[in-house]
Amino acid sequence: MAERTLHLNLNLGATGHPRAFIDPQYYAETARIAERGLFDSIFLANISGLRNGVPTQGLDTIIVLTIIAQATEKIGMIGTISTTLNHPYSIARWFASLEHVSKGRVGWNVVTTRNNNEGLNYGFDPLPDRVTRYERAIESIEVVTALWESWQEGAIVDEPGRPAHFDNTKWAPINHVGKHFSVAGPLQLPSYRKTRPLLTQAGGSDEGTGVAARYVDAVFTPELYLDTAQANYRKLKDEAARYGRDPDTISVLPGLTPVIESSDATAQRRRAEQADRAADPAEQLRAFAKWAGVEAAALDLDKPFPIEILPASDPIFGSVGFDNATREYLRHNQHRSVRELLSDGAGRGGHRNITGTPEQIADDIESWFLGRAADGFILSLGRRPRPGSLEDFVEHVVPLLQRKGIFRTEYREDTIRQRFNAPVRSAAAVLATVE
Amino acid sequence: MHVLPERQLHLAVNVLASGIDWRRSGGFTKAFFDPAFYASVAQTAERGMLDTAFLADNSFLHPEGYPNSGLDPVVTLAAMAQATSKIGVVGSYSTTFHQPYSIARVFASLDHLSNGRAGWNVVTSRNKPEGLNYGFSELPSRHARYGRAVETVEIVTQLWDSWQPGALVLDTASGIALNRTLIKPIDYVGEYLSCAGPLQLPPSRQGRPLITQAGGSDDGIQLAARFADGVFTTSLYIEPAREYYTKLKTTAARYGRSPGQVAVLPGIGLVIGATEQEARRRAAEHASLNGAPTGDPVAQFARMIGVNPQDLDPDKPFPLELLKPTGDTYSSVGFDTSTRLYLERNRELTVRELAARGRPGGHRRIVGTPEQIADDFEEWFTTGAADGFVLMLDSLPSGLDLFVDHVVPVLQHRGLFRREYAEDTLRERFGVPYIRR
Fold first, then answer.
1. Does the interface predicted TM-score (ipTM) exceed 0.85?
2. Do A190 and B33 touch (CB under 8 A)?
3. Please, which residues 349-368 of chain A have a Cβ atom closer than 8 Å to chain B?
């Protein structure tokens, strides 16, 4: 069995400086720093609209992926593209093109769009319901994969000393006719060598887990606690095995926000400061109530959160994954008052937040990795001079992980698939799997 | 016609991967999916001070011959923008297959990446196999496609304008990034499309990307006259080219635009040699490297113009009455008009002779010396037939090297073409600065 290696991925939001969301150079530089830290990949979330708050996503995802591909040599790059808002022929062509620019280092994070504001930018009022969106997502994966396979090797014959030859019998149409799409194919370009883009997905709901276990190579999960993370990890791997897959070829990557401090004392001080920043408790309470989906008036600052008032998950526009994470968080914190919960900050975002010294963070990562709660992480890290920056992580945490023997000391693989131990599976093989 | 000294030719290079250079072993044999090919051509064009690189695009694989394009234009344009610093990057993106929000975001992003050098060529897609890749068993009618195109351009331009000046605050001290009162939704509801907006990024340095269009049909001329900063045309002969030129500029004036605000750029095929003989030899060599055409040339000729081969007598002139009226869903009015004109002007040739000359109609081609090419450009440019050209070299990159090294200096010597890039943005170069209304 191949040696199991931690997978570290950077969730690259444009948070470095106010202009970052329209600054190509910011993306190029940040990717190069992550590459210096031997990260597996850069991950790009994607919102197709302008949100409230500081803008974190402006430049088009395909263009940012091209920028990163040209600015780096080894690190992977995974971009989020919605199957609700985009056509599979376009998706297949974008990512096949990016494979050639990056030489086999690109990944497609498959999502459905559940935010109505994004739908309104694309003529949806309302968005298709959750079931339709999932069907469309699955059919998109099938069409895209078939298009990537529509060429055989060797269409271009280039032998020294004679004119190159183009063999235009090396492709075949796919003639897909499904419930949501009809696509004739073939794609208008061949794949990069024998590889294909990596497929990833954000997991959470039961349907999501099923789709992930069958189709994708890595799953991003919102996990706050070791025990539930371990249970979900086992569940996904077992399900993958039921689809006839080697469980080691699908990676589970929980979100993690490490806040690095140089010593225990300063870490505690930083936490205390965060709590003190409760400048306006009423405003904080309103934000907290909104996050939980309840009325602020129903909460008492000095009492625990009354779990029974939580609304049921919205099966259409909600994210079951994040709702479950919210529930888990509140259940784990029933002994604490709402006032205490207010100071937890980013930990409530559905992704875990750990504050500590480099050693403490490395130990935590190791325990999740060895404890089979995670195969790696998707890390949210800012840039210097913010505390807990990517630069700090690369300089102080990565060496500790290497010393523990769980993280690479050099890039050994060329393609993102090799790095994730995710061999290409043919569309036919995937379709043939039945649970 | 008096030529203002500041009026300069506008030259674009159509970056097509076909041609013959790909057959050179060890060269760009994978040109249609090789990012390095596109970067290299863009850099050569920049060495020659060309206005812009231009990407035509179809969303299907042509079943015959070496493909013109493979990589997605979004990726190719981004790669070319990163490989250059002055030249424009203009690409076709279909209004039939893509949502306006995507188009607006993509080209605004390219405009930021290139620092104000991006352009969108509005196309409606007319090839049946493209439709089949996007779920259309039949493409919408020409009229419906143009209706959607007009709405798309309206939405895209409104999205580009959805951030008013001052919206981007970027105050690091206060942490305030945006002035949201200056960012407005567009709430567009049309017959074909709707879009709420606003866009998620501000305008770039040139205000908004350049808009170009290939307008041969009446619908196309209206769209171009209304919205386009540049028009790519198909013109075989100079007199009809002047008529088109006048018609387009007059129509633009009816939309309240000045004639200088829309540049007319006919496509021109070029085979360049130091002498005419050398140019002809290059053309012949390329033809032979392409291999002898297979099949009956008369049948191929018939297929190219869409008539039944059995209706043709190879030894008689072409019966013009066989030509169908143009304008159906899958035709190009520009190309059809050009074909009809070509056949009308060559009535003395037999069908067999016509077939031996290759493609009927389409773009004009010059096989000749730099001086001959410069003479031709000068005549078209100074007599109201063109503001510049879209260069279709016989092969890339070798044909472009010849153009840059041998034709550009002649044009510069005659004062028709710039010796250096004076402007930073593509809009400034085309003399169409964006003024917010």
1. yes
2. yes
3. none
